[in-house]
Design goal:
- The chain is built from six helices and three strands; from the N terminus they run ααβααββαα.
- It is mostly helical.
- It has a domain at 10-110: Orthogonal Bundle (Arc Repressor Mutant, subunit A).
- A three-stranded antiparallel sheet has the order 1-3-2.
- The protein is flat.
- This is Helix-turn-helix domain-containing protein.
């Protein structure tokens, strides 16, 4: 049996998934920047504003939702507040960790992205082969993300146990 017909090794699959995901991330950021630009936003600003459209969140909560560092979100949040697109509100659950909330101006900026976002989503759905294909791709990506999170949590718990001798 030739090697070409054998399925890829787990290591090759992991590497391929990582490289493809990094490429997808770059592609999504490029598209998001193009869609957000007419509204005076960047992809990162759009992401942070989008996280607080329905309810105010602390910066750490936005970071958790987005899967990025609190420091990165803090820099963006400060810029959004400076430009009047978001505001800090008091947090009844934590006196020092203010809540970030979208302002009316921020909501209006996000609304201006809507038509272009809808048109691009429809073109992408068609290009990938329709809603069912797109839904299947999303489901696979979601399973991959959940598996990585579970394994990362297990690795962290194992490392903690080794560190504490437990």
């Amino acid at each position: 049996m030739s090697r070409a017909s054998e399925p890829p090794t787990p290591q090759a699959l992991l590497s391929g998934a990582a490289i493809t995901t990094f490429r997808l991330n770059g592609q999504f950021l490029t598209v998001a920047d193009r869609l957000a630009a007419p509204a005076g936003l960047t992809a990162a600003w759009w992401q942070v504003l989008g996280a607080v459209l329905t309810e105010p969140l602390p910066v750490s909560g936005v970071a958790r939702v987005m899967g990025i560092t609190r420091q990165s979100v803090q820099r963006i949040a400060d810029l959004l507040v400076e430009r009047g697109l978001a505001a800090y509100e008091s947090n009844p659950a934590h006196r020092r960790a203010k809540l970030l909330a979208a302002t009316d101006e921020g909501r209006a900026a996000i609304a201006r992205i809507g038509p272009g976002h809808t048109a691009f989503a429809e073109r992408l759905t068609e290009a990938i082969g329709g809603r069912a294909e797109f839904a299947a791709a999303l489901a696979a990506l979601t399973r991959l993300s959940e598996a990585l999170e579970t394994l990362a949590d297990e690795a962290a718990a194992s490392a903690d146990a080794r560190r504490t001798g437990g």
